[in-house]
Predict the structure.
Amino acid sequence: MTYKPGHVHSEASRKKMSESHTDVPLSESHKKALSESRMGEKNPNYGKTFSEDHRRKLSESHKGIVYGPPSELTKKKIAESQTGDKHPGWKGDEVGFATLHEWMRKMYPPPELCTKCGLNKPLDIHNISGEYRRDISDWQYLCRKCHQIVDGRHEKLLQRNKQRNT
Ligand SMILES: [Zn+2]
């Protein structure tokens, strides 16, 4: 007959061992002791409010959830909403007004001096025809002063045309 380790223990000792190793529910007295240690005067937080530091940590962790950095999905959504036909400045095939100015500046960097008076640094890019063609011949780099003059003339011209038409 082969030897089995289990046979070492007697029935009685095995019973004792199994009892002590089983997950017996906590006894009532034990539970009471535990709950008492977490409540009332024995509770470390009893009778005092959260410290400022603790509150700050709590609010920070809360902010982390609500205002945390956008997830990859959110970033993608934002990017999508700002490009293509969803972009507020996007008008079909044309470049938006401000974007076109930027585009012209990029394609045709401004000269050192105003193309009209040749005295001042050109700050503005002026569209000549009002058609906003993507062609430098339709654009002028003007200093603020000349731009105002040109715009003023343009305004007068428009008013003259208006008067002529009415
Ligand atoms: Zn000028």
User: Anything to note?
Assistant: Residues 83-93 have pLDDT under 50 and may be disordered.
